[in-house]
Amino acid sequence: xxxxxxxxxxxxxxxxxxxxxxxxxxxxxxxxxxxxxxxxxxxxxxxxxxxxxxxxxxxxxxxxx
Length: 65
What we know:
The chain has a single domain, classed as Cell Cycle, Chain A (2-Layer Sandwich). It contains 1 helix and 3 strands; from the N terminus they run E-H-E-E.
């Protein structure tokens, strides 16, 4: 039996632009709806910054249903 968190795919959403960060949730939801044959098993949210840029990355780990 497979581990509950086992995965066979990764999708990364990443942006440094404020307006794209505001729309990231809708973009992720759209991608999930376009891929009904997958099950999200884990995710990570990463934020990094320097003097000028703030980068937000959301990584989805998934497996085929």
